[in-house]
Structure prediction request, 461 residues.
Amino acid sequence: SPLQPNPDWVRRDVLKGLSLGAGATLLAPLIQQAVALAEGKSDGIHRRVVFVLQSNGLRPSFITPSGHVWKESREGGTTGGELVELSLRDRALPAALEPLTPLKDRITLLQGLSGRIAYSDHSANHGALGCYSARGVHGQTIDSALAAALPAVFPHVLLGLGANGSEAINYAHSALAANKPLPTICSPSLAFRSLFGSVDGGGKAEFDRQTNLLDFLADDVKRSAAALPASERGKLESYAEAFESLYARQREIADLQGIIRRHAPDLGEKRTTTTSSLVLEAQFEIATAALIAGLTNVVTLTSGSGHQRFGQYPELGAADLHNLGHGGSIAGKTNEESFIVIHQIHTRLIAEMAQKLSNIPEGNGSMLDNTLIVFMSDSGDGHHPRLYSWPIVLIGDLGGRLKRGGRYLEFPAYGQNKHATIGSLYATLLQAAGQSCDKFGHDDIKLLDIRQGEPLQDLLA
Prediction:
């Protein structure tokens, strides 16, 4: 009837009224997103990216689906001059990826992207996510760049399992800029306090003290600046801005306390464990909870501490994964079977994270629909990598910004005209996240006849 208001308009106006009156209530973030969705704004939905970086290499054969033979060049790369694309519909995933089978229609398997610029005897370190030399921190890594493109209360959450279950922090894989490595928290207890401390008993009192202190410091610095000559005032004013920024983040966290409390994981003994597999499990649970609570949109989960520090799983009979890279084994299994055991620890946790995200409604689908998970090794294709082909698994399409999964892509061989590097993948991810990017990473000097680091049209929707 023409006398009845459009229900969509009514819903939109009601939501707007709520958002204007909600201010800093616990519901503000959810209401703001609902308003955006009611107005048809796609940017009301958060997009998320999760990197899972495992040590010790991921062999090309471990991401090759059934019915296809991985034909390796003498150097270890692909052999053809054209892109090979296969559907995964009637193909089984290899054993290392078997836990991801329920996600097969969301998966894109990538072979043939080179990363020779990051070549090293073992881990490519920051070069794995930076597409530059493994020897040093030469620029921002892709996870950090995506964190800037997909802002949140915690722009970038970095969690992991270190060289062993008792390592607290390392600086092995991510960087904000050249010579500015980012810390990865390897202690579940420390990670939990950092993200969920505002609702954690005594941690709440400490959180409130920190918030009040930051507010006082910002005001105090501003008062001090007012008494200084103009030539000296600028420096103190920049300090005040820094304190105000920290205070603003504390207030954002305070506003989200109801949501944080609802989604804070119950880790039990995993919170203080030093058993490697349990540490990794706890970190995945914390990361998933942080995503669901809206604390962050970008997570990096690492396993191993770069260089030759691959990790230890004594509970599985693997006292040192370095030995596994030199033909060793676990509990009487073959070397290949042993590697698959370690890979499946990670892919099982990825599958569990994906399932939890798929259970959370968002827009016309679920949180998983707006998420991309990237699984790869910081050592590329092996313990002693060659990096002519860097096997990478993508799960999800970032809210339709990437082409739908269920595909296996084998890029042209190293040196061929249509060959691409990992820098091109990273430029693609930035483009999909809404950040214009013509090029990412450093050039491989042996591929100067090829346009490097540009977005891949075979992946962009």
In short: The first strand starts at residue 48 and ends at 54. The first helix runs from residue 7 to 22. Residues 129 and 141 are 5 Å apart (CA to CA).
